Here is the input.
Amino acid sequence: MMADLEELSEQESERLLASQDLGRVAMVIDGRPQIFPVNYAFADGVVVFRSGEGLVLERSPMTAVAFETDGIDEPKGLAWSVVVQGTAQNITNTIDTRSERLRHLSVSPAAPGDRNYWVGIYVSHISGRRFKLGRPAGPH
Amino acid sequence: MMADLEELSEQESERLLASQDLGRVAMVIDGRPQIFPVNYAFADGVVVFRSGEGLVLERSPMTAVAFETDGIDEPKGLAWSVVVQGTAQNITNTIDTRSERLRHLSVSPAAPGDRNYWVGIYVSHISGRRFKLGRPAGPH
Here is the structure.
């Protein structure tokens, strides 16, 4: 039987991370926390998203970021969340084969607008938790 | 006709913020960004959530945070997100009437566990955007 709150293995956290395409990036800009939603893909230990701006990456090519995604398994009445710590890098023009592979991922921003930058979050730590919903899931 | 991407008024952003109960808090701890999901309520210009830990608030009673929530209006095929900048305060034991009112809000953490702390994010800036989904909404 499942405990009330289950800490997920790295492998299971990665599986769930790869199962979604909407997450939120947190980074520190001028000492203050910023957060924004992104559509993403996950492969090869890297969370990839596209951006219309260079973000803080122009000033600081290796930027510490946190990333979160979550979801609900309705049939099982379970909710889960995965949190990643990592380093964001502008991979728009990098010529290594890993970057080239990452730029071929299907990353489909739902929001309109130009997105000339590819950003990769190189995961240094991942954790996840899953729990039974004690109440009906909200509209989210 | 709606533009592709609509910047929402402060009023509409607050209405959407009040319509959800799952969001994500970003804060800076030891210089690094952290992000975690919370169930919350919004009233009187304050996002209220409960926490099992004192977070960074024990060391720093006024902490800059960012907060995000988002949702999908399925019938209309619209997605939206709201981002808040503000200051987090531990309101567990504060005796002003506003804090007392806030501690009476219905904040129902979906995840199990003790949550002895009440935290209020006093909103200093709020923004929101809404856009038509160009593709079917994901499982989120």
Remarks:
- The two ends of chain B are 27 Å apart (CA to CA).
